[in-house]
């Protein structure tokens, strides 16, 4: 199955398999795997970082806290699938291990420390960067954005309207208050993804 997904990822990257979109990658589920389609070159860099981080976590005995990255090329990354952490009021939230009603895996704080200190990871407490395993414990699924990559490349592209930033506001079509993808400060298209805005 994995070999087929790697060789034929484009056949699986269809709307009925869609599970999520960020500013640089679009994600599709195929059985127990996900295809992360790189929609911007920064997405490719994030996926390469995830591959390096996962391999380092294997050596450090922390890999069970991370979605395994099997394959990366300039177009896609293939990882294990995990159920997403539910949003609250149509938005993501910061994981607080003292407050959450989520099972926190052992060695979570060690993994967080390594991500911060060894890999310079950015925004790793946001709930959208986690999935839940079969024991309902947190698993890192999106962990490839470094502070350097964010500051040196992502910010300028987001401020110029090339990459979307997330704003929490009402969708002009469905009327629900939710996270919208906004392209620069002059973007007046307040539609959510479900109502047609990518």
How would you characterize this protein structure?
Keywords: Kinase, Transferase. This is Protein kinase. With 198 residues, the protein is an alpha+beta fold. Helices cover 26% and strands 23% of the residues. It has 5 helices and 10 strands. Strand 2 (25-30) and strand 3 (33-38) form a beta hairpin. The radius of gyration is 17 Å and the shape is globular. The mean pLDDT is 92.
Number of strands: 10
**Termini distance?**
29 Å
Number of helices: 5
Order of strands in the sheet with most strands: 1-2-3-5-4
Q: Could you say what the CATH architecture of the largest domain is? A: 2-Layer Sandwich
Helix content: 25-40%
Total count of domains:
2
CATH-derived topology of the largest domain: Phosphorylase Kinase, domain 1
Helix-strand pattern:
HHEEEHEEEHEEHEE
Give the CATH class of the largest domain: Alpha Beta
Strand pairing plus helix content: what structural class? alpha+beta
Keywords: Kinase, Transferase
GO molecular function, one term: kinase activity
Protein name: Protein kinase
